[in-house]
Amino acid sequence: NVYWAGLSLLEIIRHTENLSESLKAFDLLWRNYRKTIVTGLALSLMLEDKKLKEKVIFFVKPYLELNVANKYLAGQIYNHAEEK
Prior knowledge:
Layout: H1 2-15, H2 19-33, H3 37-47, H4 50-56, H5 60-65, H6 71-82
Helix pairs in contact: 1-2, 1-3, 2-3, 3-6
């Protein structure tokens, strides 16, 4: 099931302290579940972390252009991306 697979990858990102594991999980989300809200939640979460932010910042525009996220999540992603 697409929902559970994406959610499992989100949980890896949320709970691991290993940068490489987070990036691998996000890569799988991006390649397989790009047009889901779960990918947006993962992106937002990763943008909160300074180390991860520099690795995923370039996904912001392509994700927002998909118009998948509701206005609240889209705003959160945008705001995290703009924070210094």
